[in-house]
Specification:
181 residues, alpha+beta, five-stranded mixed β-sheet, binds zinc ion
Length: 181
């Protein structure tokens, strides 16, 4: 697989893009503010059909029980595409999490139970990766307008793949369905 050229021609990497030394930051109890455009997070982008918007917040590093800890707090708006009507939709992001940073998967058992383990390979992680990790857990993989919202496709209209509805469908409804194929 080829890496897109844009990766290399990028004029200057934003600060959140840079891998940071987890041990050093946790010893110093560093507090780092960030603003991250969601469209620039590669794993998020590959998982969602379309993602825009921005989150702002800060990461506080600390140390507990010999583990580097990051407290990630952020807020903002994710602009996604509803997978039912393909119109834009916004999801507010307001999240705070404490994660335990480990240098290898073998260290997973050292992370206290109340912390989410996050892999910081070779003791390095970027703010962008931390933010992305959290957003992957927070945002829906298949975004849909909530029923109370104005989805361009009426939410009560059954999806073609909705098998629960199949048995109750009157015959003329079925004819309609076949014509669409
Ligand atoms: Zn919709």
């Amino acid at each position: 697989m080829r890496t897109p050229d844009t990766y290399y021609t990028r004029p200057m990497s934003p600060p959140w893009f840079k891998p940071l030394d987890v041990d050093r930051l946790s010893e110093a109890e560093a507090d780092i503010a960030f603003a991250v455009p969601l469209a620039e997070l590669p794993r998020l982008r590959s998982q969602l059909a379309s993602v825009e918007g921005e989150v702002r917040g800060h990461v506080r590093f600390a140390r507990a029980a010999g583990i580097a800890i990051a407290e990630v707090a952020m807020s903002g708006v994710a602009r996604l595409v509803c997978q039912r009507c393909l119109e834009a939709m916004e999801i507010p992001v307001e999240t705070a999490a404490r994660v335990g940073l480990i240098a290898a998967e073998a260290d997973m058992s050292r992370v206290p139970e109340d912390l989410e383990p996050v892999l910081a390979l070779e003791g390095r992680i970027s703010i962008g990766e931390l933010v992305e990790e959290e957003l992957l857990l927070t945002l829906p993989i298949v975004p849909l307008h909530a029923e109370t919202e104005a989805c361009a496709v009426a939410p009560e209209a059954p999806l073609v793949t909705d098998e629960a509805d199949e048995t109750q469908r009157p015959f003329e409804g079925l004819g309609e369905l076949f014509k669409r194929k």
